[in-house]
Design a protein that fits this description.
The chain has 1435 residues and is mostly helical. It contains 76 helices and no strands. It is globular, with a radius of gyration of 39 Å.
Length: 1435
């Protein structure tokens, strides 16, 4: 069958004049269908008020007539649907594009998601802001389009239904103009919005539009079209689609029956509606809560209270638990249908479950939007019955949202007054009238605001000047002098005089001069003799005319006015002015005239503070730019005998030093009184201290030399012992200690003790510890050394001695951090098999009693593990309960509960649940029981638990169990959990479905993944970018077509089965819109040259496109490096589209292309112009530009870019080393090696240095064979290592030498700086990195030959085996496995699984049982083991 044959048949069938009449009972013979679980129909918590009709939703709202088809779509739907298929090769630029788009979507989703989770709704303002932000970036992704469309329905309860639909059409039209590709999920989303907004449209035309756009409907589409017919009471239309679904063998779900029930009711046939329930049961689908809500809604529309009550009883007897939000649907329908008299009885049925408040708020908002304020107010008053904690306000301010929406919907002021009065009488709100006024002012409703102010005045409440500021603000913006005067007159009528702030910010700016304002206000009857107006006049002159200000202030008749009233304005005026003479005169006036200071201070002190505040208010750049003027200013002040105190001088000096203008300090010091200058001292620069150059000999030789010279050798001895410990050479280390026992340091003893513990040599470890105590009993070891001793003693049965070590830790106040706490956990865990529960309990009690560590579930769990491994469930439960009583921790309760459920021990299970409920709350208890039932396959019991009224989502707990299912490959339990949580309050449905997709990806189950996608549409879930990418990967990996736009497929090479139709120019049969869509599709598939040819031909024929195709073609060409062609396209765009500008993405790509071509200056100029236009470049653009400048030796250019980025206000996640490394390379390029060393060395010698990597610098100079630079930087690296104990640069060089196959150089460097062998974290990271790529075994062997034991064999061997598997080297892998067995090592499961795959690939039989679990399961176990090994290693 052709692609769209089914759609065409459906559309034709609906257009047929002879509609067939179907009986629902005859149609619905559902085979192989069971009840599909609870309906999946709400997006988030579901805001009330819109028609919630559609697939998997509940139906509300009045019946409506069919609309004219002309109103369905005010624009054409065009464009060939292009299926994006991922390919392997990805261009660097496309990464930046995708990254920015993904970040933007994540931000938008997070904002909307946060709003919905908090309130159950979103605001129109927020939605429009996100819409404009998405449009501004250029081409919107399919996922962004879906997010916007789905937000235009019932999630906007404060917006009228018609306005919501207009907004949805606006979004659709704009996104299509920008080139967004729509698939079936977008059409389904639009359908859902139509249903929620009760929009009249023709399902026939809707299908035709889909057919024209080459988009095939799916089951969700047909379900929602049925709902659309039923919303208008058109059973015949619904039956037609139902028949088509049956012919296509599409399942008839509970949602379809709910729609039919509503359809019969709205057609006036309530009996047929009621009979839908037995028809459902006959079809094998048990009516659920949604079905009963649909029936209740039908009765509510008719005002049939008796049937409402009877149906509620039937639902209760059928074990269908109706939630508060279900009753609220009925309340809304009653009010909207004019049956408000029945609302109180329904309100009494509300149980105030958890989540009641946001749902009830949304009900009130929807009612107000529909003009049902009185009903909404009745619901609001019902809030008062809640516990105060639920309201969360003290004093109470209940009803803010209600009053705000009443004001916004232009509710009569007298009505608002009555609501406010009743709220205050009921003690639900402390100041409702004032809040209503605030809302009116915020909405700029002048008439309502003035009316409310009059009411406030009548009630005896104050009306303050700032209340009028919002009303004045708009007049100021519009420069409306008359409007300002009218508002001021209104103030006078209410007896309110404007204060200084109101005058300065909201009245005076609208007048051309102060004199004009004075005259106008005088005519309006405003008194002008107040201090506020006087201050305002001074402030105005201070920022505009310092000469006039001086004349005014120096007039003897000018009254006293503390200069703090106008200091800010005066400082601003000084910073803007170049009238030096007036500045000096005014400063002198402040210094000498007592009128401008308060009684508690003298004028000289006030003027001094003014000078300090002046410098403090200026930025570094401002001070540097005006250095000469400030010098003249200070000098003139000195000539006027103006002085400052020493403290003020020091403050100004510190500011000038921080601004890097030390020369000005000399001019400021001249202002200090000569007799005080002696206490200041001279100003001099402290020379920078640099490290001493020198090289260190091999440690053994150095020891011998120091001993021969009779010099102290303790430091070198310590280094030697630590080096031997790193090599695990215990015997030689002990010998060295024996030879130089008198010179041994604490560090040497600590390393030896740790080494003996690692080798399980408990006697030697204790001897060393006692020897150390004899030398100095006050010495405190590092916590890790003590813990190593405790572990070794405990494993060898010497528990009391281990306890003594713990007591010593307490006595010596050993500091413990998180790493040490983790080490304690592993210590206790290691004793599980050795000593059992009694030993662990002894150690655990000692640790907690002494206060060495705070009790945690992690530290308590080894005790429970000991009981569980011995199959002692009662003992495990008792131990867990004791932990909760004593330490408020409940370790491994899940495993205990699972064991009890499996065993069927109901008595112990009840005991556990009662205890958990009492100690940790009922909700935690319910989750614990829910997970236990899921784990043991008792799904019926689990469903009853999770459907407990009032239960809300706990994301952390749900994620924990989902990860557990994925880890153990338990698809059934995971699916059940996702299905059961569909109605759970605040449950993140995208997150839940993503868990199933993750498991589908691991098991390669594309059919289940495809079913998940359909179910997500049915539930109206907004998928995140990562969810779509995961689903697309699963489908593509199995050769399936991806039915949506994949977010990451930008500028990738074509790898799709379906080729995009090529065309040269638009024909009469093809619109320009369709042509644009093909052009965009070519760009996205990496066929930029072909698209470029199309555009040039079209341009010659005068075809004019929208901005989006031009911008995308420019991006595609730049991604291929075709900068000249891209500029040609830009010229065409400028000529065709007035005001055309490149988008942020395109400009960033242009910077990248210039940089990669070596045109760094052009790239820098483009960056400057981009920032001047307030556009933000991509991270990759900045990185490539800085690298290009570094290659050209342009240090100043790099510094300029760094300065620009600091002024940008956002970090772009750029590492500071991008600038540091490339500045160093630029200096090297210029032959200035000293400066390069200084730049790098300053980073590593800084006190707050994090030892970042400089591998990039070493790699570049090695690639360039720059021996001179290499010698200089290697000397620096060794100096930092040997004198500053900073080993990162030396480690980077060492590993780069290995990477460049310079083995001898690496060996020589290790000999010079043998502490590199101790940098285990860096070395292990290198090993892990190399083990990811084939052909790296040679480099790993080179590293091992130089540092054989830098990590434990348990960690090393799995990496080596992984390398052999990547290299497909079966003989070497076999040899390694045999070696591991000979050494008594157990080959971990992940290695065995890899090895088994290698055997199969080589066509050989696997000679051992292959581990049954997934790779991820065993990878996590190996990772945990590696972490453990790293923690116990010497740092």
């Amino acid at each position: 069958m052709p692609f769209h044959a089914a759609t065409a048949n459906m559309a034709a069938l609906l257009r047929s004049a002879r509609l067939l009449k179907f009986s629902p009972s005859g149609l619905i013979q559902v085979t192989r269908t069971k009840r599909n679980g609870p309906p999946l129909g709400r997006l988030y918590s579901g805001a009330l008020g819109g028609g919630r009709t559609g697939a998997c939703s509940r139906l509300i709202g009045p019946a409506s007539e069919n609309a004219s088809s002309s109103r369905v779509w005010p624009y054409a739907v065009a464009g060939v649907r292009g299926y994006a298929m991922a390919t392997e090769k990805k261009d660097e630029a496309s990464v930046a594009v995708r990254s920015k788009q993904a970040q933007q979507f994540d931000w938008a989703l997070a904002k909307l998601d946060s709003s919905v989770r908090r309130t159950g709704r979103i605001t129109k303002t927020l939605l429009l802001r996100i819409f404009h932000d998405i449009c501004r970036t250029g081409y919107p992704s399919g996922n962004q389009a879906l997010l916007l469309l789905r937000s235009c329905g019932s999630l906007l309860p404060e917006v009228p239904l018609e306005e919501r639909t207009v907004l949805a059409h606006r979004v659709w039209e704009k996104l299509q103009e920008l080139g967004a590709q729509f698939d079936v999920s977008h059409y389904n989303a639009l359908l859902k919005v139509y249903l929620q907004n009760e929009f009249k449209f023709s399902p026939t035309d809707f299908l035709s539009k889909m057919e024209a756009a080459n988009v095939q409907p799916n089951r969700v589409t047909y379900q929602r079209l049925i709902a659309a017919y039923c919303q208008n009471g058109n059973i015949e239309g619904a039956s037609t689609i139902l028949g088509f679904m049956k012919s296509k063998d599409l399942p008839i779900t509970e949602a379809v029956f709910n729609s039919l029930l509503t359809g019969h009711a709205r057609a006036g046939d309530i009996e047929s509606a009621k009979n839908i329930l037995p028809v459902m049961r006959g079809a094998g689908i048990e009516p659920g809560p949604d079905t009963y809500v649909s029936l209740l809604t039908a009765y509510a529309e008719k005002g049939d209270l008796d049937s409402l009550k009877k149906t509620l009883e039937e639902a209760e007897s059928a074990d269908c638990s109706l939630m508060d939000r279900d009753i609220m649907q009925v309340i809304f329908t009653l009010a909207k249908a004019g049956h408000q008299q029945y609302v109180p009885e329904m309100v009494e049925r509300l149980r105030h479950e958890r989540g009641y408040v946001p749902d009830a708020m949304n009900l009130c908002l929807s009612l107000i939007t529909q003009g049902q304020e009185d009903t909404a107010f009745h619901i609001l008053k019902n809030f008062s019955s809640l516990h105060p904690d639920t309201l969360g306000t003290d004093p109470p301010n209940l009803g803010n949202f209600f009053l705000r929406h009443c004001v916004n919907m232009d509710t009569a002021v007298e009505k608002i007054r009555c609501y406010c009065k009743e709220l205050q009488e009921l003690n639900l709100h402390t100041a409702p009238l004032i809040f209503s006024l605030y809302c009116a002012l915020e909405a700029n409703k002048t008439g309502v605001s003035l009316e409310l102010m009059k009411i406030l005045k009548e009630e005896g409440l104050p009306v303050r000047p700032h209340y009028f500021c919002p009303l004045l603000n708009q007049h100021v913006k519009d420069n409306n002098t008359a409007g300002v005067v009218e508002v001021v007159k209104g103030m006078q009528e209410l007896g309110v005089s404007p204060d200084a702030e109101t005058l300065s910010n909201y009245i005076l700016p609208v007048f051309p001069s102060t004199e004009a304002a004075r005259q106008a206000l005088k005519d309006a009857g405003v008194p002008l003799e107040s201090e506020d107006f006087l201050s305002l006049e001074v402030r105005s002159l201070a920022v505009s005319n310092l000469a006039k200000l001086y004349n005014l202030l120096s007039d003897p008749s000018f009254p006293s006015l503390d200069h703090s009233n106008f200091r800010g304005s005066l400082i601003l005026g000084f910073r803007k002015s170049d009238d030096l003479e007036s500045m000096v005169k005014i400063t002198e006036l402040l210094y000498k005239d007592e009128r401008f200071t308060n009684e508690s201070s003298n004028p000289a002190e006030g003027a001094s503070f003014f000078l300090y505040n002046l410098i403090d208010s200026m930025s570094e750049g401002e001070v540097q730019a005006q250095e000469d003027m400030l010098r003249k200013y200070f000098n003139k002040l000195q000539t006027q005998n103006i002085t400052v105190s020493v403290n003020i001088y020091r403050g100004i000096r510190n500011l000038l030093e921080s601004y890097h203008v030390p020369e000005l300090i000399k001019d400021v010091i001249a202002l200090v009184d000569p007799k005080d200058r002696a206490s200041i001292g001279s100003v001099s620069a402290v020379p920078r201290v640099t490290g001493i150059e020198g090289k260190v000999l091999v440690l053994e030789k150095k020891l011998a030399e120091l001993k021969a010279e009779n010099k102290p050798l303790s430091s070198v001895l310590k280094q030697a012992i630590q080096a031997l410990c790193a090599e695990e050479n215990m015997q030689r280390a002990l010998e060295l200690k024996q030879q130089h026992e008198d010179e041994m340091t604490v560090g040497g003893y600590a390393s030896l003790i740790n080494l003996c513990c690692r080798h399980d040599n408990v006697e030697e470890a204790l001897n060393l510890k006692q020897e150390l105590n004899r030398k100095d009993s006050s010495i405190v070891l590092d916590a890790s050394k003590y813990i190593a001793l405790v572990k070794t003693l405990s494993k060898n049965g010497r528990v009391e001695e281990a306890v003594d070590i713990l007591k010593e830790m307490k006595e010596k106040e050993v500091v413990m951090n998180d790493t040490h706490i983790t080490m304690l956990f592993y210590t206790l865990n290691a004793v599980v098999t050795k000593g059992g529960a009694p030993v662990i309990r002894r150690l655990q009690d000692t640790i907690f009693t002494l206060g060495l560590a705070k009790p945690s579930a992690n530290l308590c769990s080894p005790l429970i593990t000991a009981y569980l491994e011995s199959k002692d469930l009662p003992g495990a439960l008792e131990a867990a309960l004791e932990c909760q009583k004593h330490y408020n921790q409940l370790p491994r309760i899940h495993d205990i509960l699972v064991g009890l459920v499996e065993k069927g021990d109901t008595e112990l299970l009840q005991k556990a649940m009662d205890f958990v409920s009492q100690e940790r709350g009922e909700m935690n208890m319910l989750y614990d029981l829910f997970f236990a039932f899921l784990q043991t396959g008792r799904y019926r019991e689990a469903r009853k638990i999770i459907e407990t009224p009032g239960l809300r989502a706990r994301p952390g707990r749900l994620q924990w169990y989902a990860e557990k299912c994925i880890f153990a490959n338990q698809m059934e339990a995971l699916e059940q959990m996702v299905d059961m949580t569909a109605k759970l309050f605040e449950c993140d449905r995208d997150e839940m479905y993503s868990y199933i997709l993750r498991l589908c990806k691991e098991t390669n189950d594309w059919e289940k993944a495809e079913a998940v996608w359909t179910k997500m549409q049915e539930e109206n879930v907004i998928p995140r970018e990562r969810t779509l990418r995961m689903l697309a990967d699963i489908l593509k990996n199995n050769g399936q077509e991806v039915p949506f736009e994949v977010p990451e497929t930008w500028y990738e090479q074509a790898a799709t089965a379906q080729q995009v139709k090529s065309a040269t120019t638009p024909t009469t049969a093809e619109s320009v819109t369709e042509y644009q869509a093909r052009l965009l599709a070519l760009c996205k598939k990496g066929k930029a040259k072909e698209a470029y040819g199309m555009l040039k031909k079209a341009d010659k024929k005068g075809v004019k496109l929208t901005p989006a195709p031009y911008d995308h073609l420019i991006r595609a060409l730049l991604a291929e490096g075709a900068i000249e062609d891209a500029m040609v396209v830009k010229d065409i765009a400028v000529s065709r589209v007035p005001g055309f500008q490149l988008s942020n993405i395109a400009t960033s790509l242009l910077i990248i292309t210039h940089s990669k071509k070596g045109q760094a200056k052009d790239a820098l100029e483009k960056l400057k112009s981009m920032l001047q236009a307030d556009h933000v470049p991509s991270q990759l653009a900045i990185t490539r530009l800085v690298q290009a400048l570094g290659n050209h030796g342009d240090v100043a250019g790099i510094q300029e870019v760094e300065s620009l980025m600091k002024g940008l206000g956002t970090s772009l996640n750029l590492s500071s080393m991008v600038f540091v490394n490339n500045k160093a390379l630029a200096h090297i390029k210029n032959g200035d090696l000293e400066s390069a060393v200084e730049v790098l060395e300053s980073v590593y010698t800084s006190p707050d240095s994090t030892s970042p990597s400089m591998s990039f610098v070493f790699r570049k100079i090695l690639e360039d064979d720059d021996d001179k630079a290499l010698d200089k930087l290697s000397a620096m690296a060794e100096r930092l290592a040997n004198h500053f104990a900073c080993y990162r640069p030396a480690s980077d060089l060492f590993l780069q030498l290995l990477d460049m196959d310079k083995f001898e150089d690496a060996k020589f460097m290790l000999a010079r700086c043998n502490a590199l062998a101790e940098q285990k974290e860096v070395l292990l990271s290198y090993l892990s990195r190399k083990a990811q790529t084939p052909g790296q075994m040679g480099r790993i062997k080179a590293l091992l030959s130089l540092i054989p034991d830098f990590t434990e064999k348990q960690v090393l061997y799995p990496y080596l085996l992984k390398c052999h598997v990547l290299d497909k080297d079966l003989p070497s892998a076999k040899a390694l496995q045999e070696q591991m067995q000979e050494e008594g090592m157990v080959v971990d499961e992940l290695s065995l699984k890899r090895l088994a795959a290698l055997y199969r690939d080589a066509g050989e039989t696997v000679p051992f049982p292959e581990p049954p679990e997934s790779f991820k399961f065993y990878a996590d176990k190996l990772r945990e083991r590696a972490d453990k090994a790293q923690m116990t290693a010497e740092e």
